Amino acid sequence: MASVAVDPQPSVVTRVINLPLVSSTYDLMSSAYLSTKDQYPYLKSVCEMAEKGVKTITSVAMTSALPIIQKLEPQIAVANIYACKGLDRIEERLPILNQPSTQANTCFPNLDLDVCLENNSRFLTS
C-alpha cells in the first residue's frame, strides 16, 4: 500500500513573512540598514557588534528552549492552526497586505496611522 504525503500546514510565521507587504517592507528596511552601515564606518562597527551579540543570545536561547518547544509541539501545532485561520480573516479584510509596500504607500500618501487604527479597529476585533 502506497503512503500519501500530506503537506503540513505552513507556519503562520512563514505565511506572514511571505506577505508581499511584509517581505517588500523588510527588503526596503534591510537595504536602508546596509546602506547606512556602508555610509558610516563607526556606526557599522557598532551595528556589527550588536548583530554578533544578538546572534549569540539567539543561539543560546534556542538551545535552552528547544526541549520545551519539543514538549509543546502538539499545542504549538494547534495554536498555529488557529493563527492561520485568523490570518486568513485578516487577509480577507485587508487586501493591502497582498501589495508590495511601494504600491501600498502610494495608496495612502497622507496616512495617519492612529486615525486609521481607530477607524478600522472593528476589522481586527470582529
UniProtKB/TrEMBL annotation:
**PANTHER family named in the record:** PERILIPIN, PERILIPIN-2
As for family, the record states: Belongs to the perilipin family.
Q: InterPro entries given for it?
A: Perilipin
Q: Which keywords has UniProt assigned to this entry? A: Lipid droplet
Q: What is this protein called?
A: Perilipin 2
Q: Which domain of life is it from?
A: Eukaryota
Q: Name one GO biological process term.
A: lipid storage
Query: Which Pfam families is this protein grouped with?
Result: Perilipin
Where is it located? Lipid droplet
Q: Which GO terms describe its cellular component?
A: cytosol; lipid droplet
